Amino acid sequence: MRLIAAFAALILAVPAAQAQQDAYITANPYLGTTVLPYDARVSPYSSYGALNPYTNGGGKIYAQDGTYLGRLNANKYDTESVSNPFGQYGSPYSSTSINNPYSSYGSPYSSFSARNPHTSTPPIVRYDDGY
After folding, report:
1. What pLDDT, in 10s, does the model give residues 54-78?
2. Edge-to-edge strand order for the sheet containing 68-72?
3. Which residue, 9, 59, 62, 65, could crosslink 125 as a Cys pair with Cβ 3.0–4.6 Å?
4. In percent, how much of the chain has pLDDT > 70?
């Protein structure tokens, strides 16, 4: 349920020009439009849903510098999920985790971080699997 807590603090926002493909994961409320709760990208019932604890799907997260940051889903057993506390992308100790408050991608002060409320370069969530 760590991902659910992260969604309470972060906003999944869709840039106006790319409404069906990419989204931002950010604490900056001024980037794009917030994704609605019934959108397939956040639904707990969709194979792409960020809140689905059984999927290995979901959006792929990329930092603006091109670094792959894992998959956005709630499956704590998925090796690529940001919800897996023992995986490379969900560990609070990994340098490529948005859950590491000291990494470039999880720090509230880094320009590439999802948790920086002032960034203009947050991670991008790409739904290129046929969404």
Report:
1. 988 888 999 999 999 999 999 999 9
2. 33-34, 11-14, 22-26, 124-126, 59-62, 68-72
3. 59
4. 79
Task: Provide DSSP, 58-78.
Answer: SEEEE-TTS-EEEEES--TT-
Closest listed residue to residue 22, CA positions, set 8, 41, 5, 9? 41
Average pLDDT over residues 120-126: 90
pLDDT value of position 6: 52
Domain ranges of the chain: 1-131
